[in-house]
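Hi all, posting the design record for the shared folder.

TITLE: backbone redesign
STEP: 1 of 1
STRUCTURE INPUT:
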């Protein structure tokens, strides 16, 4: 996800070439996990901030998927007393597509 607040800040402080490098690095990191190498300290700092946002968004997304799977499990199993934590440790199998 591209956040207007950090791209706006980059737009004010960085050249088009630098923004392009950061955007490419962000896309590569999102798609492959590849870390870009920047020699410039401010570029490293900007990229670390972008990486942290990508990581947080990915964690939130994965948690929301798990919560939906949990809700589906509870509905199918008719087991309202099972907690999310119990389901994760006792019932959830990551290799199972359901």
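Okay, here is what came back for every position:
SEQUENCE:
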């Amino acid at each position: 996800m591209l956040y207007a607040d950090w791209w706006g800040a980059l737009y004010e402080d960085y050249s088009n070439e630098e923004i392009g490098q950061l955007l490419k690095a962000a896309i590569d990191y999102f798609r492959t996990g590849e870390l870009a190498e920047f020699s410039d300290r401010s570029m490293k700092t900007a990229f670390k901030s972008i990486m942290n946002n990508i990581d947080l968004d990915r964690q939130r997304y994965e948690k929301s998927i798990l919560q939906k799977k949990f809700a589906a499990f509870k509905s199918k199993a008719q087991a309202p007393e099972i907690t999310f934590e119990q389901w994760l440790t006792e019932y959830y199998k990551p290799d199972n597509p359901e």
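COMMENT: The longest helix spans residues 41-77.
Let me know if anyone wants the other runs.
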